[in-house]
Amino acid sequence: MARNLKPPPQRAAARRGRPETGQSAHNILDVAERLVQTRGYNGFSYADIAAELGVTKASLHYHFASKADLGRALIERYDAAFAHSLAAIDQRFTLPGDRLRAYVALYESVIRGQRMCLCGMLAAEVSTLPAPMQKQLNAYFDANESWLGQVLAAGRRRGELQFAEPARERARAMIGALEGALLVARVYGDARRFRAAVDPLIRDVCGAPPPMRRRRISPG
């Protein structure tokens, strides 16, 4: 049988640098985000994304010329989604203690979805990441520390929260503890380990108030 040397129209278009029909940067980012959250940045390639979407690698390069470009876009999108979640917490809750618990619930929702914090996973590989991605990670965690520090400071002024060190330092320690709790819970495949690890942290700051009725707020 003679070989068909002319590629199908969609594949030919991708080879000329145009995306294949039905695919978008959003689809690519969705798959890439899940792969980073489950495998890590260095645990997947464009071939993995292309195979899952059923497209050529050329169509991925149309949207993101390099994996570094894809990585920067992932952080930007995750950062924006997380910032939106923090704004939703600010709008829904007025008491600092409730805002703190809602913040912790963001992390818990990730591990219950059998994933990890995207930026936490990237932080574990930071020495191998391109410099622009490292800078974005710093900005992501700085923004989180700033927001949480403001919540903690407001709670202490109200007499609702108690801790000795500066609010920003306590925020930094809490974020580190939350990311670490995610990692350990992932090792055991048990989201309850996350809750067991973070509950004492919350009680240390908040005491033991009545349970807050929480509405799940997803980071994206």
Compose a concise summary of this entry.
By secondary structure, the protein is an all-alpha fold. The protein has helices at 9-15, 25-39, 46-53, 57-63, 67-92, 96-112, 118-124, 131-157, 167-188, 191-206.
Describe the structure in your own words.
By secondary structure, this protein is an all-alpha fold. The chain has two domains: 9-65, Homeodomain-like (Arc Repressor Mutant, subunit A), CATH 1.10.10; 68-206, Tetracycline Repressor, domain 2. 69% of the residues lie in helices and 0% in strands. The chain contains ten helices and no strands. The chain has helices spanning 9-15, 25-39, 46-53, 57-63, 67-92, 96-112, 118-124, 131-157, 167-188, 191-206. Helix 5 (67-92) crosses helix 6 (96-112) and helix 5 runs parallel beside helix 8 (131-157). The longest helix has 27 residues, at 131-157. It is elongated, with a radius of gyration of 21 Å. It starts with 8 loop residues before the first helix and ends in a 14-residue tail after the last helix. Residues 1-23 have low confidence and may be disordered.
* Percent in strands: under 5%
CATH topology of the largest domain: Tetracycline Repressor, domain 2
Number of strands: 0
Mean of residue pLDDT values: 87
- Global Rg: 21 Å
Alpha-carbon distance between the termini? 50 Å
CATH class descriptor name of the largest domain = Mainly Alpha
